[in-house]
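Box 3.1 A note on notation
Throughout this textbook, protein chains are presented in two layers. The first layer is the amino acid sequence; the second is a token string describing backbone geometry. Keep the layers aligned when reading.
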Amino acid sequence: MIRSIWIFILSFCGIFIIDQNIKSLFVNGFTYYTKCISLILEYNRGVAFSMLSFLGENLKYIQILLMVFVSIYMIFHKETFKKYSLPLGIILGAGSSNIYDRFVYGGVVDYIYWHCGFNFAIFNFADVMIDLGVAIILYINYKKTKEIERG
């Protein structure tokens, strides 16, 4: 269990620190334009694709509650925590970084803008890490299912 806790703490802190350092570049004025991807500062007051932006300041408190519930669940389900310590650390570290942005900047600092062939939502490193965490959870479950099928 100690190993799982360390994996969680290191992945949580690593993602949070990396994301905040990248965001500080853009908050301090960094921009870069290419044919397909532009790196520009944008503050997202909602969640993905600016959904739920009508919740305003309440959104960050709802997100904190969600993260608290996930954390409480993991405390009471230690086997699940051990199984998913890495992806949970990645997801909660990235989510915490985005929530931190809401308190400091009034919105999530987004900066990756895809505009090659079609315009896509502006996103950030934390968003990518949340997707990676979910993909790892899916992979772990897929791998477990294949092991069960083989007997």
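The first strand starts at residue 32 and ends at 33. The radius of gyration is 17 Å.
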